[in-house]
Amino acid sequence: MKKLLVSLFIYFVAFFASTSVALALNGECIKDTNGSIVISDAGRAGTQLFEDTEGGGSTDVEAPFKYADGYIETEGVGTKTGTSGNNSNQCQNQPDEYKVTFYKVALCREDPYTINVSPDFSSCTDIFNNTDGKEINIKPDIEVNLLEGDLRIPLGNYPFLITVVSNHLKIKHKQKYVYENAETHGRVPMHGRGDSFADNLSNTDLCYTIDIVTTYTGQVYDAGFKSAHGINSKTVVASQGDAAGATLECVNTGTPGSDFAFATEIIDHMGNDATFVSSINYASTLASTGVDVEMAGQMLRTDNATIADDVDNALRIGAFFKYNSPVRIKVNTTAFKLNFATTAGVSLDACQNGTNDEIYACKVGADPFTIKVETKTRRSRGAWN
Question: Which residue has the higher pLDDT, 193 or 316?
Fold first, then answer.
């Protein structure tokens, strides 16, 4: 098989994908011109609700935000009178910084993914493979090298790309909040970790991440989980709508404090509760990231190749990307770029206390990323395609 020697420059660029999308991405909330998340008048009053129907139940949840462009959430959300799927208590956003540890990146001729079965990498060509992993800190519009060097890649078409990363995703982010009618209501008193209504907060409208650990499902687990994940010295916090459950700090100074740090979200598995789910099937990421790619996910063990069967041995995420137009390695290909879409890479979750309607900055969740591949050829005058 003929192979092409590529002077390979593989680097990640966090980009705002929605610049090429006409409508707001699903999960984005209404913001002002400065990027501050808007709390509506009804949200401020605690009368703005959505009906949570996940698990077959029906619970009215206070939701201080509204989705942008009239988007209506339907998954796990009912249509009970007095509620709306346009109301939300969480907002997707592009994080300031997103740390990911990579173990493997490969192009594949055949689909390596089968649901609930270990992946088959036999048709794949490694771009990057490091059993120790390499941590990459991805920031908007800043290029970060994963690897530089020469690599022989067989000529041909590759409809699939896979990455194996740590399931400990790290987010560093600050976010400001404003009231819908700020000229009337003044600045927002957001509540952070350790705060309460009795503190009578004022103008604490900037919230930021601190060094804290949460899980995707909200589960806390036992000492065995902490040992398996190497976090014995950390406290895993179950975020909830009170002072003990808030995981961000909120201040009135306009700038984060000295404890501004990366928060860690452990993707414990692919489900929503304590029942372990190893895999999720392919689905389009267009609505959530602005990139027209299908993505599947799988929890893997530390050998980077075997499917996990419980939260203690699930320490890797296998992310599988299926492209409508395959990546083409031709004789004049000189390099390619992996664009890492973090448009909606962080979920900013709020909780509202039903007694006094104060709003807590409960959690930052690391949401799925998407990778778009661009190639460069000798005749393209330096342009990426």
Answer: 316
Within 10 angstroms of residue 330's Cβ, the number of other Cβ atoms is: 12
Condensed to tens digits (0 to 9), the pLDDT of residues 30-72 reads 999 999 999 999 999 999 999 998 878 899 999 999 999 888 8
* Structural domain contains residue 200: no
Q: Which domain holds residue 306?
A: 3-18+103-167+278-342+370-380
Give the per-residue pLDDT at 225. Answer: 95
Distance CA(27)–CA(89), nearest Å, equals 10
d(CA 373, CA 336): 7
To the question of pTM greater than 0.85 for the whole model, the response is: yes
Degrees, nearest 5: CA angle 251-239-296 = 115
The rounded distance, in Å, linking the Cα atoms of 91 and 340 is: 20
CA 37/CA 44 separation, integer angstroms: 13
Q: How many domains does the chain have?
A: 1
Helix ranges, the chain (H): 41-45, 182-185, 223-228, 286-289
Contact 104, 317 (CB under 8 A): no
